[in-house]
């Protein structure tokens, strides 16, 4: 990692810690009112016992906890740039008897080896790309970390194209206070990279474009029998 990239990482980590140092205690209670589509994205994981699930920008661990209850036996991993958020996530899991491995790091430049695995069967990014400056690099890095047959599941703010202009403007002004920027170019970018890599893509809009859900699927390896 170059010194410039290291400085950017440190600056963003400090920003996220400042934003969430206090908010982490009320995060789950408040975000349920406007982070739509998270639970349907979890249901869409369609994972099996023994498979690996990584959440990028895992925050308080809320999504990983729900995923573990819906799909018992998952091997859980979480990455977040905010150490304050990870402190809350670890505390959430501690009394449950469930195990999750949490790593403090940058979603734009991680590797499965950091978690001690060769790849992940499922990777989830829930309302994090709108907070990560280099969100495109995060998508590429996530795709590189998928095991054959694995899938990347994204839920985040959409372009609000079919909602009233006043609502779209007000929402974005409010989100900006929390350093959140909807990625209007996300779907075209996903379409382009999936064409380039031969990946499957499913996109659904929620609430008139308020949010989007996307699933990118990597094909299984083909074994040739002689």
TrEMBL record:
Pfam families (UniProt xref): Methyltransf_25 (PF13649)
Listed GO MF terms: methyltransferase activity
SUPFAM superfamilies in UniProt: S-adenosyl-L-methionine-dependent methyltransferases
Superkingdom in the source lineage: Bacteria
Methyltransferase domain segment(s): 54-150
GO BP: methylation
Gene3D superfamilies reported in the protein's UniProt record: Vaccinia Virus protein VP39
UniProt entry keywords in alphabetical sequence: Methyltransferase, Transferase
Coiled-coil region(s): none
Keyword Transmembrane helix: no
Name by which UniProt lists this protein: S-adenosylmethionine-diacylgycerolhomoserine-N-methyltransferase
Naturally occurring in which organism (per UniProt): Allorhizobium borbori
């Amino acid at each position: 990692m170059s010194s410039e990239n290291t400085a950017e990482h440190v600056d963003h980590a400090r920003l996220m810690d400042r934003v969430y140092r206090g908010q982490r205690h009320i995060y789950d209670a408040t975000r349920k009112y406007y982070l739509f589509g998270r639970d349907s994205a979890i249901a869409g994981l369609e994972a099996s016992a023994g498979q690996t699930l990584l959440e990028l920008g895992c925050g308080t661990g809320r999504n990983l906890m729900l995923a573990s209850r819906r799909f018992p036996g998952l091997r859980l991993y979480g990455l977040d740039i905010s150490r304050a958020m990870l402190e809350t996530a670890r505390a959430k899991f501690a009394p449950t008897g469930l195990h999750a491995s949490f790593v403090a790091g940058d979603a734009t430049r991680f590797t499965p080896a950091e978690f001690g695995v060769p790849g992940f069967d499922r990777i989830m990014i829930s309302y994090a790309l709108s907070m990560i400056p280099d969100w495109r690099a995060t998508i590429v890095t996530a795709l590189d970390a998928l095991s054959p047959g694995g899938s990347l599941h994204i839920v985040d703010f959409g372009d609000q194209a079919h909602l009233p202009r006043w609502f779209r403007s007000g929402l974005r002004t409010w989100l900006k206070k929390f350093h959140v920027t909807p990625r209007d170019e996300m779907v075209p970018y996903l379409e382009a990279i999936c064409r380039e890599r031969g990946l499957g893509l499913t996109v659904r809009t929620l609430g008139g474009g308020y949010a989007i859900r996307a699933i990118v699927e990597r094909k299984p390896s083909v074994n040739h029998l002689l």
